[in-house]
Write a structure and sequence with these properties.
Layout lengths: L13 H52 L3 E5 L3 E6 L2 E6 L4 E3 L3 E5 L8 E7 L6 E6 L4 E6 L2
Antiparallel strand pairs: 1-2, 1-5, 2-3, 4-6, 6-7, 7-8
């Protein structure tokens, strides 16, 4: 005697799959805004870390190479001139400089005292850098 076996596969219907895909897409879209802001904050932090490393390098290399260095804060990027080499650091999309400033580092490592104001499109992220006359010091402050 031959027995026929019925095979029943349990699976999602097309309608159920479309509903789950729609719910997943909506959740993803709701998370896009906060994720963009987290990414922008991360890029700004990375910019400030890079700036501090490049600054320390410029201040140390000036007396070592016995050549003056300078840092130019332009509208879209910052340029560090170490002797004959130029290092460019682009601002993140959320950061703009309010005033063009050039900071000079002389052969002994002393700097000119100036202030550079940065404006950020992110909330509570505006920065002000005060370069103090002396041995390569600066203070970065949050401003309103």
């Amino acid at each position: 005697m031959l027995l026929k076996q019925k095979t029943k596969f349990k699976a999602f219907s097309l309608f159920e799959m479309l509903i789950s895909l729609a719910i997943t897409s909506i959740c993803g879209l709701l998370l896009m805004g906060p994720m963009d802001q987290v990414l922008a904050i991360s890029k700004e932090k990375q910019f400030w870390q890079n700036f501090e490393q490049l600054w320390q390098s410029a201040v140390v290399e000036a007396p070592m190479n016995r050549m003056p260095n300078s840092i130019n804060f332009n509208d879209d990027k910052m340029t560090i001139i170490n002797g004959n080499s130029k290092i460019k650091l682009d601002y993140p999309k959320t950061v703009t400089v309010k005033n063009r400033v050039t900071i000079k580092i002389n052969k002994s490592g002393q700097i000119t005292g100036k202030t550079v104001n940065f404006k950020s499109t992110l909330p509570n992220r505006n920065q002000k850098i005060v370069f103090q006359i002396g041995w390569g010091q600066f203070i970065r402050k949050d401003v309103e």
